[in-house]
Amino acid sequence: MILRKIFTSVILSVLVALMAGCTSQGQDQEKSQPSEQTTPLEKSWEEISSTAKGKTVSLYMWGGSDSINRYIDEWVAPRLKEQSGVTLKRVPVNDTKDVINQLLTEKKAGKTNGSVDIIWLNGENFKIAKENQLLFGSIAPKLPNVQDYVAMGAPDLQYDFGIDTEGMEVPWGKAQYVFIYDSKHVAEPPKTIDELKDWIKQNPGKFTYPAPPDFTGSAFLRHVLFETSGGYEDFLKPFDQQIMDEKSQAAWAYLNEIKPDLWRKGETYPESLAKLDLLYSQGEVWMTMGYDAARASNEIKKGTFPESTRTFVLDKGTLANAHYLSISFNSAQPDAAMVAINYLLSPEAQIAKFDPRHWGEDMVLEPSKLSTEEQQQINSIDRGVATLPAEALAKHKIPEIHADYVDYLEKEWKTNVAKD
Amino acid sequence: MWLKIRPYLLLMPAVGLTLLLFFGGLALGLLQSLGLFSISGGSSFTFEWYQTLLVDQAFWKSFWLSFYTAGISTLISAVLGILTALGLLRLSYKWQRMTQFALLVPHFIAGYVVILLFMQSGWVSRWLHAFGLIDSIEQFPILVNDPFGWGVILTYIWKETPFIALMVYPVLARIYQSWLEVAQTLGASRLSFFREIVLPLVLPAWLASALIVLAFTFSAFEVPYLLGVTFPETLSVFSYQTYLSGSLEERPLALAVNFLLAVATGFLGWIAYQWSKRWSVQGWKGW
What we know:
The complex is a heterodimer. By secondary structure, chain A is α/β, with parallel strands linked by helices. Chain A has 18 helices and 11 strands. In chain A, the strands form 3 sheets. In chain A, strands 1, 2, 3, 6, 10 and 11 form a 6-stranded mixed β-sheet that branches. A 3-stranded antiparallel β-sheet of chain A has the order 8-7-9. In chain A, helix 2 crosses helix 14. Chain A is globular and about 65 Å long. By secondary structure, chain B is mainly α. The mean pLDDT of chain B is about 90. Chains A and B meet through helix 1, helix 4 and helix 18 of A and helix 1 and helix 10 of B. Chain A: This is Spermidine/putrescine transport system substrate-binding protein. Chain A: InterPro entries: SBP, YnjB.
């Protein structure tokens, strides 16, 4: 009995000591944070590069694409290591929100020596990160390659889903939403959301979309919203719940109308884009989609998608956005992280990324600022049989809308469509 | 005195850390589900989130789904598990080791394998089609991502059966070693030996392992996430979606679900403990 009492009291005291240790540590760190944080941003680029040597940085990024993963692991990492002595460690995540959640928790706990150095993000996640001060600071003005090659003031780069980036994140690439179809089964791809509805009705069970809040599924909702409510322009204004309740009615009606003719009669939706791709590659559905114009060509090359795979955009345009790299507020190696991001924005890394053998994604650099040699190199790259020509894509771009709308649509989709 | 508390002191760092991280996390979750220390700012005590949950029909649908998929999986795995263990008694050591491999496969990989095998365009369906047993792959029954949850149940059965088998196997082995010959000399048949001696002796271990499986399958996330339907989803998936979706304001709701799940799991654990205590008090200890 006495033993048990001693046991409990010792445990309790250890617990108290541990907790006290945590909080006091947290306070210390908060005090020292500002000075620590500002130093790398005040240093010159030479100082930053020399501090960075020999350090290891982690890059937390969505890990759902083999070609992207290979580009980082096999192309970027060895070259970065050789040129600047920085080791890049890729950490795959299923959803960038997981990283944001981790950082929120670390912020609350006052943890300063975080494991996350670089994050790949945009949109909603950037909004949360910025609002909660999860980012390191205005890094863009520090990076030579950003200054030399990126048009930071351009509206499609400066505003991330309607939110001013303030240089806290640096654009890494541009993405445009395309629909992917199997031309063996779809002779004439639809050009509008209405035509898509007709196609779905004529081919029951051969279409579906990932269940929001999946990133791609959520973007599909926005296309439906734009075309059923008369254009995206209305949604560039600040969010208004009442207007939105009215405007979204037609979209919910549309989605419920196609529901009985979707894959599995709309009783369930693929929980992720990866699942939709699996269904497509197995021939269960005849269309998939996604924010990567060159993905279809890449998948054909790998043999997962059928040779007859092609892509299309809507006449009224598909969503286009930029995605960004940023540094976490508690990065242990901010200098090395800046060096790594700077390298990812170098002409050689961006051109390699543009090449479909690596990734095939749009560059974020201004082609006019590159050397003639580099420009020739870009023009000679074959982007693959299923990738639409750059002009066709550029002509059909529409901007992303404010993240509040995205939240709203994802939440209401469940009530208005999934539960019905 | 020193010698007596020494082992406790040596255990302290490990136990302390576990307690801190486990109960600390649980307590923080509880506080946040009550509206305190909210991550979106503000802190005021409220039962609002629990109220929202308990009057929400979707919550009860999720609860029922989690409950019956866990229940069916547990029942079938328990029966198959003890049969497997009985089978293992007759096999060589090498084969016994083989069954342990099933335990090494993580649940989400098991779930993915079930999808690849049993989706309508999956391997099984294609084999059946190739052998002419079905005319088209659409005729293959919908077994994964089905509204009832067969895909989830199927995955749990193949993951939990070996677990229960390995939990009861050592007990069975001991019973057979020490009691079978005695019983036989006293004239018991194999069946009556099983009914009169094996079953009562193995019951505590069997029930306890079944309850562990029930508690796990009731609250686990990855399998229903991969193999469930969009709506209704199990409680764990419901909590995950709420936690992830957009705004931070709804986070207490997700944590409220998690806390209720933790309470349910704790309750099942408590029953398991009570049972095992009752059995040991009744004097089965000495065998």
